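Progress report, Aim 2. The chain analyzed during this reporting quarter is listed below.
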Amino acid sequence: MSSVYHINKGINKPIEFHGLKAQYIGYLAGCLVGLLILYAILYISGVNAYLCLALIGGTGTALLTTIFRLSHKYGQYGLLKKSAKRSIPAFLKFRSRKIFIHLKASSYGKH
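Predicted structure tokens for the chain:
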């Protein structure tokens, strides 16, 4: 008797939640926790509740749109690749040829 197996079509795809992909879900969660803490600090310090809500609402909207924009623009690994590309030097500068002479000598010794 043959068995029927269902294939999970989500294999090797990034985690996605309402259009957010991969690490951007974590970024959004961190921002929301930060906004919650900021609201608590402002409210405890005596700032008007409506002003707190307006400030947190505006900041939250700006963060939400920024994170969605980054998620759609760069995708799963694009933002990490962009930050890694900035750390690559524009050029390498050597003051002597010793390193190249050493490489040539060591490559002949291996044969």
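Helices lie at 23-44, 49-74, 78-86, 98-109. The two ends are 60 Å apart (CA to CA). These observations will guide the mutagenesis work planned for the next reporting period.
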